[in-house]
Amino acid sequence: MEIMWLGHAAFRLKGGGNTIYVDPVDMEYSSTRAGTSSNEPESADIILLTHSHPDHCSPGSFEHLCSASTVIVGPQDCGRMAGTEIQTIRPGETTIVRNVEIRAVHAYNIERQKAPGTPFHPKGIGVGYLLSIEGHTIYHAGDTEPVPEMNAIGPVDVALLPVDGYYTMGPEEALQAAGMVNAGTMIPMHFFETSVERVLSAARATPEVNVHTLTVGETWILD
């Protein structure tokens, strides 16, 4: 199967006869890995949205990917943002769409808050996803920190983990999370100002976790 990073938290997964997008929002910012993919977009069979923040759920960024048969899955808040009908899902729920098993898991902040007592991502609102495709398990963590529920997720073949360190966990915590879910490979995302070198430095300090960085538009083949 194929995993393409489209920038920020956006990925395109291809496998089992399906084209799946996760948080397909174009984001440009100053990270050395940021930008938008110049690849010609392909129509989506499935679109997964992790939460309603506009850098993850923005109708203008994915409406061109949709056809009459596209299935959009996301938390209830995303339905209001998307302006179209979606299949809602909550942490702990599992659904099967086009022979793809989709399990929603918790994604939330423990420490990072926009005001005292108000986390950027409250528990129970947003989700991460566990996807079973062609015998592989892919984990897109959404916006989260290492949370206790991660201990029950693994093992996973690939973990797509945020590393910005302000709204979500930073690189060192992401390596911790990769260990919690027993990831075969970690692919960092959601950089904002975090440098690739900081991610690689954290990886060198955690040699038991395989880290693979992608450039925008690059595809990694999972055999």
Folded structure, characterized:
With 223 residues, the protein is an alpha/beta fold. The protein has a single domain (2-208), classed as Metallo-beta-lactamase, Chain A, CATH 3.60.15. Helices cover 13% and strands 32% of the residues. The protein has four helices and 15 strands. It has helices at 59-62, 76-82, 171-180, 196-204; strands at 2-7, 10-15, 18-22, 46-48, 71-74, 87-88, 94-97, 100-106, 113-115, 118-119, 127-133, 136-140, 156-162, 183-189, 219-221. The strands form three sheets. The protein has a seven-stranded mixed sheet with strand order 6-5-4-3-2-1-15. A six-stranded mixed sheet has the order 7-8-11-12-13-14, with helices on one face. Mean pLDDT is 92; it is low at 30-38.
Secondary-structure element pattern, one letter each: EEEEHEHEEEEEEEEHEHE
Supply Rg: 16 Å
The third-level CATH topology is Metallo-beta-lactamase, Chain A
Q: Please tell me the overall pLDDT.
A: 92
Ranges with pLDDT <50 over ≥5 residues?
Answer: 30-38
CATH architecture: 4-Layer Sandwich
SS strand fraction = 25-35%
- The tally of beta strands, per DSSP, is 15
**Number of self-contained structural domains:** 1
Q: Tell me, what's the shape?
A: globular
**Structural class of the secondary structure composition?**
alpha/beta
